[in-house]
Design brief:
Blueprint: H1 7-12, E1 20-22, E2 25-27, E3 34-38, E4 45-50, H2 54-69, H3 78-94, H4 96-107, H5 111-132, E5 139-141, E6 147-155, E7 158-162, H6 168-181, E8 185-189, H7 196-208, E9 215-217, H8 222-231, E10 237-241, H9 244-256, E11 261-265, E12 271-274, H10 281-293, E13 305-309, H11 313-325, H12 345-355, E14 364-367, E15 382-385, H13 392-395, E16 402-408, H14 411-418, E17 423-424, E18 426-430, H15 434-443, E19 448-451, E20 466-467, H16 478-482, E21 484-492
Parallel strand pairs: 7-8, 7-10, 8-9, 10-11, 12-13, 12-18, 13-16, 15-16, 18-19
Antiparallel strand pairs: 1-2, 3-4, 5-6, 6-21, 14-15, 17-20
Amino acid sequence: MNVSTNWHQRALELKPASQIFIDGNYIDAASGKTFEDIAPHDDRLIAHVASGDVEDIDRAVKSSKKVFENGTWREMNPRDKKAIMLRWSALMLENREELALLEAVDTGKPIGDTLSVDVPNAARVISWYGETIDKTYEEIAPAPRNALAMITREPLGVIGAVVPWNYPLMITSWKIGPALAMGNSIVVKPAENSTLSTLRIAELAMEAGLPAGVFNVVPGLGIEAGQALARHMDVAKIAFTGSPAVGRNMLRYAAESNMKQVALELGGKSAQVILNDCVDLEAAASAIGWAIYYNAGQTCSAGSRIIVEEGIKDELFAHLRRFLESFVVGSQFNPLTQMAGLVSKPQRDRVNGYLDLIGQDGEKIVFGGEKSEGADLLIAPTLIDNVKPVSRLAQEEIFGPVLVSIDAQDADEAISIANGTEYSLAASIWTSNIAKAHTLARRLRAGTVWVNTFDMVDVITPIGGFGLSGSGRDKSLHALDTYSALKTTWIDLN
């Protein structure tokens, strides 16, 4: 990373594309409406973004349906499809600085993170799924000898994807990678305040050779463009990452339209269980710190609860304090910054609302806890002790750099507390006893359980949860099944 680059100046010089992207072309919204894309770090107007609605979604879906039905992408030689996906991934890396800057300016993330994490990971997902295209085999069922029974995966058709603002590039890649690998077309509705990087990768996809219409992008408000996409009668599946409230709406829209498939990833209140036989509390504290303060806590799987067995809390807290001594909080344009401000004033105000709850039921601030006001979106890394398991601080997703600590008498109580929320996305256990780790991991109700680590993720393993965390799975080979339907072809050989 070039630490001498003046990223702030480069941000001021950005002239991003901000129209709707359909059929390989940028076009205005049919209504002519736009919305303002505001940089969270300085309230600067980045662009007037085209605000799509029902008519624009219909145009995008018709475009994607047409190219799906004519087979331009669906029937293309697998080797050629793979080559396009690999070239697309390479172009994302070639344009890494531009994409990273778009992502940072839109979301307020540190430029060091978007350069080293967001863009490379999104590019890897595209190339990884590209590699699966000519390596995925179908099945022959054990039919009688006078018959041939084939089981094949068939693409669903037009996929609608609605993605959030916290990891726009990465989460978009989780949807488009497997969807395109299986031969579908896709229409993406980005979050209103993080549209720019998605529009740019759509343009790069055309440069790589992806046929026009296979990947369309319609910016717009959720209540207009997002709802229209989820209700569209020609959309075969809606893939949504976001809040439980909107997730419930997505289920209703699907039921009220064509009963399309729905995949939901709806957040979490992930627990880290630290047992008193954990022999490396320094390592645990480092992982805990990164798990909640990275991206200012705006991560679905953020380890926002620690459940600490008796006897080790004081030492653990001391290590957490030392972790923060070297954790760089500051300007998003400093390449060394590890945590910057929140994405928007509404999100900052939401976190402030939770900080107001501290002390109402005996909670105590260990560090941080100060609210921010005005133009300041930075909330300091915060640790709250003596939190009751049933309190709002322990039950609700704060989506900020706020860690709550809950006491447990033993491992059994710790697991009970960990499972005691409606969310079930991720969890971890810190213990030196491998047998205990296996046993307790089975008891944790979570889509991912880490042992003696946290947030070790890759495209090779699925992500998703249970309960209020949703019902879908992104990433891994298993995602290919979720963007396809099994088809049986039985041939009589007599």
